[in-house]
Amino acid sequence: MRMHAFARRRRKHTKRTDPAVPPVVRLISISKSFGAVKANQDISLDIRPGRIKALLGENGAGKSTLMSMLSGRFPPDSGTIEIDGAPARFRSPADGIAAGIGMVYQHFMLVERMTVAQNVLLGQTGSFWLSPRAMRATVGALAEEYGLAIDPGARVDSLSMGQRQLVEILKLLYRQSRVLIFDEPTAVLTPAETGNLFQALWNMSEQGKAIVFISHKLPEVIAVADEIAILRQGRIVDEFLEHEVPSEHALANRMVGREVILEVDAQPVPLGAEVLRLEGLSGNGLEDVSLSLRQGEILALAGVAGNGQKPLVETVAGLRSPQRGAVTILGSDWKAFYGAPQKESWRGGLAYIPEDRQGLATCPDLDMVDNFLLTTRHGFSRQGFLERNRAEEQTARLVEEHDVRPPVPATLARQLSGGNLQKLVIAREFYRHPRIIVAEQPTQGLDVSATEEVWRRLLQARAHAGVLLVTGDLNEALQLADRIAVMYRGRIMDVIGRNEPDAVGRIGLLMAGLRKGKREDGTAGEGARARQGEDGQGAESAPGGAAR
Amino acid sequence: MLRVVKRQEPLKGGTPLIVVGALALSLGISMLLLAAQGKPAPRGLFLLWDGAFAHVHSLEDTVLKAIPLYLCSLGVAVAFRMQVWNIGAEGQFALGAIGATWAALHFPDLPAPLLLPLMFACAGVAGGVWALVPALLRLRLRVNEIISTLMLNYIGILLLDYLVYGPWKDPTSFGFPLTREFSPAAQIGRMIGRIHWGILLCAAVGLALAVFLKRTRTGFEIMAGGAGARAARYAHMPYGFLVGLVMVLCGVASGWAGSLEVSATLGRLQPSIMAGYGYTAIVVAWLARLRITHIAFYAFLLAGFRVGVENLQLELQVPHAFGGIMEGLILLSVLAGQFFQNYRFRRAEG
Amino acid sequence: MLELALPILAATVQSGTPILYATLGEMLTERSGVLNLGVEGMMIIGALAAFVVTGATGSPWLGFLAAGAAGALLGALHALACLVFQGNQVVSGLALTIFGVGLADFLGTPFIGTTVPGFDKLSVPLLSALPVFGDIFFRQDALVYVSYVMPLVFWLTMRRTSLGLAVDAAGEHPAAASAAGLDPVALRWFGVVGGGFLVGLGGAYLSLAYTHLWTSGMTAGRGWIAVALVIFAFWRPGRAVFGAYLFGGIMAFQLRLQAMGADLPSSLLLMLPYGLTVFVLAASSARGGGVGAPRGLGVNIEPQE
Asked: Domain limits of chain A?
């Protein structure tokens, strides 16, 4: 938790702590259950215009459920939502929009094949007939009014994640939403884009918009919020005004509900042989990627999602073949490694722990035993027949050992929580005694204790394996990795040792495509120029933000 | 107002209820259609039952129809298991019949122990190849297998027509489109009553497939590939091979069904063997929820409806197409009924 | 040479017309995100409805509308199975075809061999006098002329109206449509029922204009060809016109060959359109690789709690 880069640009406080401002939204003892799970219990919350309210909580604490009810996606089981003092009953998101409530979902709700203008005006076009030119003009004028640099005629699938977020914000502005809800908005942004976003949030709140900022990242919450509400296990456990906010550590403890150790012990272990080597890997969105990984180390691949991590990982994991360049896995050429009979190679080879646990790493409708067999089946087959009983016993043992809950092997994968599913995947992949582990966002969506568990396992794995850790969470990279390779637009910008001076600052710049890694003269590299050319705003230059 | 609520766990033991409900609904609608045409619906229902299941003779008819239906359904179920939408059992059945007929017409003098295996080999190869083509088209050129298998059905049936109207027509048939009757060695005899030895083949194929899917590693891979194609690729399963395999399995099984029809039921090839078993097989496979062990029962049931409809045709002059209506309705209502396995309706307040 | 080609080309337009209607119908359905394999069934029910209603009322236009209504009704059945009961779209569509073909056969039995007035050729003044073009395109029946404007209307609706934009959103990303305040399930109902209406119209062409009589199984796989053509057309109406006339051409050519007593068995000639379907799909898929398929196609919308 060392990322405070954006805190530097904290706005000058135009203090509006006047509690007399009536709330635009009041949530009064809201409860919601999904089956036996009580997602929200008796939650009351005031949201006031001109203020940024942070909703802090771990994954699964009930933040998104609460906001989905406020935006009209589904109704609460009990409790009332008051808008401007009058009770409101939303039957659909359309009702929420009409009441002035807008939401930017964590996974953007944009139609990728459509243009920016079409997305902004979708459902809001007013007239039956449309004129593409008029639509572009309307959205262009709106973007200009708020100083957001975006081409209204561009197709969304050609935009970066940061630009897509601008489209989402434009949607809310066009609908004249008074309450703007942002669900984990920084997950897909570079540090610089995050700074831009915060500036935009401050600007919009000065204009009198009420803003709800949902996050589990403490430094960001502390940096941006006027008020903080902490949600734990479906209940509000604390509320703070800005000047009352305790230390980061205290906040963390309140959020998790117990003493949190935010640092792990990542003492280096002696390095062994090289297990993975990439030389000049190009194509599939990669450009001249070279890397080397040795047993005993964790090499992090940091970068904003969509900068080539996916093709790189999929190539290494054997899901797509390299176009140009060489991939050497455990001393064998890629073709030879993946062409070898799996009868031998399933064990002591490469294990891939993907970001998509439900769908790629497991099949949601299969039980734990079948899911366990997915990658270990060759260890349980004799003359083509499958020894299911033995697999069942082994699954039961592993489930016990890794504390997967419920510890019932007949449980279907989709009935497991994200954390337990990840434990199952890790149990399975470690059972294969891999000598290379490719772990992709291994703690995304996990709560603190599950995260600690995964970190511990990865660190232990160094005894027999080399670990390639793909993560968008810089803190995770800094906690675990010996070296950090930063990817931008399919290239490795630089590889930085964890203990090098000013690692955080340099990595942040590299993630934004600024080649400042080695030279300290501050000149922007080619990547940055390309970026500036495209979206019209440099990562370092002052953000457009909303309204001046 | 009603709201849809997802069940926490799939409804246990609801399947028989859903099937019975769907059958009742479909029969009810079908009988209403009969009544709308001025035919006595209660008597229709009775005739349906009487013609299919009530006598030894009708039961024999039902089993005879269930045999090809069963084989086709096995193949369809295996392919559907892997989410390979092979609608081509009908054409593969036609090609099987053609393959068997080719062997029977060209080697009439071979003794039965040689000729019958040869016929089944030819039928299996013909049906298998007819199924492999769409598999390869899907894997190599990304051609949607629903369309390609269906088009190959039309082509296969036309090929059969071409042969029996042309080169293979019996010169002594007075112009009727049929081949010569097969030599006795090419005909499969009766086992019990009118039921032929082909039923043993059904049992063997069914058993082998059940064991294969349940107990072998490849069977597991097929099941997993159907549960999630992406996960199968992730686990380095030979996905393309598996797609080809399930298609060929379906082609061979359907081909053998066609081969049994010419060899055991008719003793010759004629266009009337194309009775739509390949399409009914889809209904059977889905009713059985793609489980191999349940297919026999539903094949028997649907074969019974076919025989029953023939009885209706005879007694009440109901068009043959009535069977299609029933089958379509059953499939639709079972499909809708399966909703209740995972969801339920709840009255929403307000 | 031209004398030989002109009748074939005019027949091409005729044979292509029912496929064009059906292709546009299925395209509308698929763009809303629903795969409907019941086209063959809806088309033949449309053909029967058109025939029966025209016979009863004497008005082919009423018959034409009845065909649309019948197709829409069957589409509603598919919508019920998939949009309300969350059924598998592939299986539901197949069931619809089995049901529709059976029902048309069952209800149509008494009409086999009878005829109705239907639509006759109607030369367009001036335009029909054009050399070559006039002969091919403007000495046709009224339903062909209607079909000329259909792709244009389709294109305008999808590209220039808020309805089209919303339908596309429901097909591409229903959750985004919902977040934007639209009702993707309602939009899909529109796509399925409206698509069924167009498919039914295609059926009407077969029993009212292409022939004036009822025969069982008269669609002969045209519904399936329409499903294939949607893929071939990359879900765009312009390419659908091209595809429909391509198939119209091969059918007209094949009939012509038969009529001229070509020394080829009719069963082999009849294979041509089916073989061409596979070939055309292979050629376009290899090139486009599924370009244009709506991202949400075939995936049901899970009900929200």
From this structure: 1-100+179-262, 110-176, 265-349+433-511, 364-432
